[in-house]
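Retro notes (design track)

What went well: tokenization of the new backbones is finally stable.
What didn't: we kept losing track of which sequence belonged to which structure.
Fix going forward: every design gets posted as structure first, then sequence, in one message. First example under the new rule, 333 residues:
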């Protein structure tokens, strides 16, 4: 972990990606719903940024927006995503293909559905390399074998010839990681990469990702609902709720004193994070449906600190100290 922090300090004034007021909407039978609403954050070079929230809060849609893979009938309606000095929301599909899988890699949630069941493992890793590199077949195969070894396979030749169904869940996840890093991306997006794995395999995958960050000096957007992982891996954290980013904080300060009432509820409800209470607390209610958003602050029906203005107006993002933002009226003035 210390080496990751050193990389962060070297590049501390540079950003790999900056997202400004991103809005992504989906057209449904009742009209247009906002899946991502005015989301803004930056990721520095060499930094791991954790994006956290309950299921359905917009984390994956944010990642798909970055990748230019928003499923129809969804689309980015406003905002910008600045990567290598360009707003990539304005690029056409051909230009995005040059970035996707090459300069921005993504590890998807479900390794079994993300891999093609009728193609050998080696072919699937080689495919991305062929698209983005002018290399011969032998050179590509050598690269694939090195990648397989790099992600922890002792017999890369054997794994090269196997099919996805012949691998365990953890092994399939390692294959997705190999595909995601095959072209040495500047940014790696990891979307819930350990959700279906047992604790031992999860630890191995996290150790692997941490080592890759050190080796390549890449940045990573790590999407999860697991705060324990973020505490170990990330330097900064963003909390999402109902499609909004409601808190942006550094990890150390977040776990010592979360700012937003929702953030405090998340920390207090997880074993091992809340040391002050013997009995774990719960957050009442559920994340609202995109089509049934309440007026005002979207969290106010579940909030134990709700005020009259919270029910009427949606709070802006207030700046608290250095690079800390909070979307809550408790911090106005």
């Amino acid at each position: 972990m210390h080496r990751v922090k050193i990389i962060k300090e070297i590049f501390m004034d540079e950003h790999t990606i900056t997202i400004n007021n991103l809005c992504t909407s989906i057209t449904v039978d009742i009209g247009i719903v906002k899946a991502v609403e005015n989301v803004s954050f930056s990721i520095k070079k060499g930094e791991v940024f954790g994006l956290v929230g309950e299921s359905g809060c917009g984390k994956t849609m944010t990642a798909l927006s970055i990748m230019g893979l928003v499923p129809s009938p969804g689309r980015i309606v406003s905002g910008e995503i600045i990567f290598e000095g360009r707003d990539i929301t304005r690029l056409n599909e051909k230009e995005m293909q040059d970035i996707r899988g090459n300069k921005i890699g993504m590890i998807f949630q479900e390794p079994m559905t993300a891999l093609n069941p009728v193609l050998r493992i080696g072919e699937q890793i080689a495919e991305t390399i062929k698209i983005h590199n002018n290399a011969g077949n032998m050179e590509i195969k050598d690269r694939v074998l090195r990648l397989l070894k790099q992600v922890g396979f002792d017999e890369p030749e054997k794994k090269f010839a196997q099919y996805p169904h012949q691998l365990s869940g953890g092994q399939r996840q390692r294959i997705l990681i190999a595909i995601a890093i095959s072209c040495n991306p500047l940014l790696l997006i990891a979307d819930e990469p350990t959700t279906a794995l047992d604790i031992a395999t999860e630890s191995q995958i996290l150790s692997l990702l941490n080592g890759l960050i050190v080796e390549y000096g890449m940045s990573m957007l790590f999407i999860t609902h697991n705060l324990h992982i973020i505490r170990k891996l990330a330097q900064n954290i963003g909390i999402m709720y109902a499609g909004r980013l409601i808190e942006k904080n550094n990890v150390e300060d977040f776990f010592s004193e979360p700012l937003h009432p929702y953030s405090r509820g998340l920390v207090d409800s997880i074993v091992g994070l809340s040391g002050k209470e013997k009995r774990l607390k719960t957050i009442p209610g559920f994340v609202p449906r995109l089509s049934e958003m309440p007026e005002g602050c979207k969290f106010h029906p579940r909030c134990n600190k709700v005020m009259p203005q919270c029910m009427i107006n949606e709070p802006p993002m207030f700046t608290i100290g250095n690079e800390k933002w909070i979307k809550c009226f408790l911090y106005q003035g």
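Added context from the reviewer: Confidence is low (pLDDT under 50) at residues 1-13.
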